[in-house]
């Protein structure tokens, strides 16, 4: 009987711990459906420059939402664009980044960063 109870307790602990230890990977969508803050890690566990820029832009969008500089609609559109860039970066990484692809990602991230800065300072298009 003790063995059965110990096995049942261990199984219960395993069932509770399994979801917490799951590797959700890049773009895990939590309870609110938004993309997670940490976009990706390379195979060595470090961050590459693309991921650092993606995380910085995501942080800028979140900060704009928190301070009221970005409306929900603006933030949603900017996050969607960031998600498209992240998907393109994943596609490029799969084949290995060449110089053109690196420049393309850099250009797209620059444009999005400028757009985030513009949207944060437009007073939500208020003309008053």
Q: Topology of this structure?
A:
Elements: H1 2-21, H2 49-67, H3 72-95, H4 99-120
Helix pairs in contact: 2-3, 2-4, 3-4
Total helical elements: 4
Q: How far apart, in Å, are the first and last alpha carbons?
A: 76 Å
- Overall mean pLDDT: 77
- Oligomer description: single chain
Task: Classify the beta-strand content into a percent band.
Answer: under 5%
How much helicity do the residues have? Answer: 55-70%
Overview of this protein structure:
The protein is mainly α and 128 residues long. The chain has a domain at 48-128. 66% of the residues lie in helices and 0% in strands. It has helices spanning 2-21, 49-67, 72-95, 99-120. Helix 2 (49-67) runs antiparallel to helix 3 (72-95), helix 2 runs parallel beside helix 4 and helix 3 runs antiparallel to helix 4 (99-120). The longest helix is centred in the middle third of the chain and has 24 residues, at 72-95. It starts with a helix and ends in an 8-residue tail after the last helix. Mean pLDDT is 77; it is low at 22-35.
